Each structure stands twice: as C-alpha cells, then as structure tokens.
Amino acid sequence: MNEKIVITGGTGFVGAHLILELLEQNNAELFCLVRAKNTSVEQRLHQQLAQVIQGSGYAPELINQVKKRCYAVEADLLGDITSLATSIPSGISQFWHCAASLNYEERFAAEIYGINVEGTRKALALACALNVGYFNYVSTAYVAGRNTGVILESPMAEVQSSNVYESSKVKAEQLIYAEQDMKYRIFRPSIVIGHSRTYHAINFSGLYGFLRRLIQFKGMMARVQHGYLERESIRMSVDPEVPLNLVPVDKVARQAVAIACSDSSNAIFHLTNQTVPTVGEALEVLFATAGLPPPKIVQDATQYAWIDEKFNEKIEFYNSYLTGYKQFDRRASNAVLGEHANTTQYAVTANNLNEYCDWYCAQLAKTRNQVPVSR
C-alpha cells in the first residue's frame, strides 16, 4: 500500500517543489489542500505544478505522476478545515504544512497572523484528527530575529523579531512545540531563491523584492533628479562582511524530503546554504543589475543625504537581513544528509548571483504591468 501524505501550500514556491520531490523520492499519494480561486482546485494545482516542472527542468513525464498521485482538496486556512478529516482517507503518515503568508508589513498584521499562526493551529488540529505520524512544518531560519552569532537548531525562546512575519513564524513554532499528540519536524530555510540550474522562481519577495525596489528607485530618480545616480552613490548603513544566506529552492525541497525520510530523532533542521555571498558582494551585484553604481557603506544614518534617507526608507524591511552576523548551525541537518549536505551545485556566490538576478529581470520585463509594487 502506498504511503499517504497531506500537504498545504502546494501551489506556493517551496510547497510546489516539495510535492515534486515527494513524487520523485517515493510512491506516495498526495492529498493537497488548495484554496479555490478562478478555476477548480485540481486545475489550479496541476497548472502550477506543470509550470514548475517546465521552469525548473524536471522530467516532463512527471506531470503524469502529478495527475495520477496528487489529489486536490478544497480548503481555506482562514476557515474551518478540521471537518476535512472525513473526506481524506485514513492512514496518513505525514502532514506537510507549507502554506504561509509571506507578507511583512505591519498594516497586514491581522492577515499574516491569521494565516501563519491560526492557520498552523488549524493544520495541527486537522493532523491530530487524521492521527498522522509526523507533522512537518516549513518555518524560516529568521525566527532568530535580531539574535546574532551561532543560531542553533533548537526551539526559540526569547527573541526580538525584526518584523511581523518573523513574529508570526515564532508563534507558529511555539504552537508546534506544545503539541503532545504527534511527532513533528520543523524545517527552517533561509532566504529562498530560484532553482539552482534554471533560476526559475514563482515567488518574487526576498531577494527579488529588493531588486525590484532598486529598479523602481532608479526609475523614480530618472524622473525627479535626472543624472544624480550617475554622479553619486547611494549611502547605506549595513554590514558588508555579513553572509547573506541565499538558498536555491531545489536544495530546500530535496533536503527537507530526504530528512523526512530518515530516522533522525532531531526535530528542528536548518535548510540554509553553506556557500553564500557577503552582503557587500550581493549589493554590488544587485546594484549593477539595476544599472546603479555600488552603494557607499557608511557608519550610520547621520551620514545620509536626503536622497539616501528616501532610499533607505524604501528598503527598510530588508535592512535587518543586511546587518547582524548569523551563523546557522546545521549539525542536525548534516548528520542526516552526510556527503550530500553541501554540494557545489547549490553554491551562491558573487559570480553566479547575477544569473538569478538577470533571470528575474527578464521576467519583470515580460510582466512589468502585472507586478505588485508593495513587495
């Protein structure tokens, strides 16, 4: 009898890749909780997975496995999902909770907490009703908030979050720690970017959101103060030597599934990258991609000109990821993955980061009128 798995967030960036890795690595049947939109949930799921298969270089015949082994179940984490236990077969071995709001603005706090915290509470309740063996939760390495130094693969106790998104993920993790009726694993990816070979992505926050802000800022300056950015560098107060932990989405998905298939007794795993650029190196690539000279790093905001103040207001959210040294401990992850823990195919360096950025800019050029400006 094939293993049966439930997954939320399967139409999202990480969730879609997790589904494809699960299909490739075992013979499981997947029951995917999908929110209804303009099409049927089955059509929406299959279309999104087909897009990822094509864009990320999976074997085209994998779409046949999607149609054969992925069952779409209509569900909305903002509503009651516990009743779905009667429409999902018994014998569910694993529950993957990937659905999340990636928003970060304080004005959306109610929505963010509703999906990330209350949605997790409801997912746990459904998993308990299904009597699953393991609850696998996709969190973020940045539950560490403003903590610096070595970040352990352990529960977060006292932490000062940098934004409402991080705070919501901390609270969601705390709900899981308190769960007494089933085993759990918490996976903490860092800043997820496109596929390591094709650079394909379907979510454009994080790295891409910062790059988009640069491009928008350049366009604004060309209108209001033409030529300024050719003469002057933007000043930023960041830590240029801090590692910027960018991790390709295929590494996150492949390693998460490999860990879930293991007999590890650990419960928390960092899905971070070992080879990453420094903040200074990454900023040079990002600014060059946007057609801007590299920023001038200064000690603090007292050295800003008025235009620097305007720019840094625009990218305020990202500043917390450009300061404060963090070293993500990976002993639990590495113990499971062994020699596969760090392969060069997933390295993100100053030399190849421009490939990810160029891919995104090409997509941005195609869909410029459809891209939201709020992220």
Summarize the structure in short:
The protein is of the alpha/beta class and 375 residues long. Helices cover 40% and strands 14% of the residues. The chain is built from 13 helices and 13 strands.
Q: Strands, helices and their partners?
A:
Elements: E1 4-8, H1 13-25, E2 29-34, H2 41-56, H3 62-69, E3 70-74, E4 92-97, H4 109-129, E5 134-138, E6 149-151, H5 164-177, E7 183-189, E8 191-193, H6 207-224, H7 228-231, E9 235-236, E10 246-248, H8 249-260, E11 268-271, H9 279-289, E12 296-297, H10 306-314, H11 316-319, E13 326-328, H12 331-337, H13 353-366
Helix pairs in contact: 1-2, 1-8, 2-3, 4-5, 9-13
Structure report:
Helix 4 runs parallel beside helix 5. 40% of the residues lie in helices and 14% in strands. Strand 1, helix 1 and strand 2 form a beta-alpha-beta unit. The longest helix has 21 residues. It is α/β, with parallel strands linked by helices and 375 residues long. The protein starts with a strand and ends in a 9-residue tail after the last helix. The strands form 4 sheets. It has a 7-stranded parallel beta sheet, sandwiched between helices. It has a two-stranded parallel ribbon with strand order 6-13. It has 2 domains: 218 residues, NAD(P)-binding Rossmann-like Domain (Rossmann fold, 3-Layer(aba) Sandwich), CATH 3.40.50; 113 residues, no CATH class. The model has no long low-confidence stretch (mean pLDDT 93).
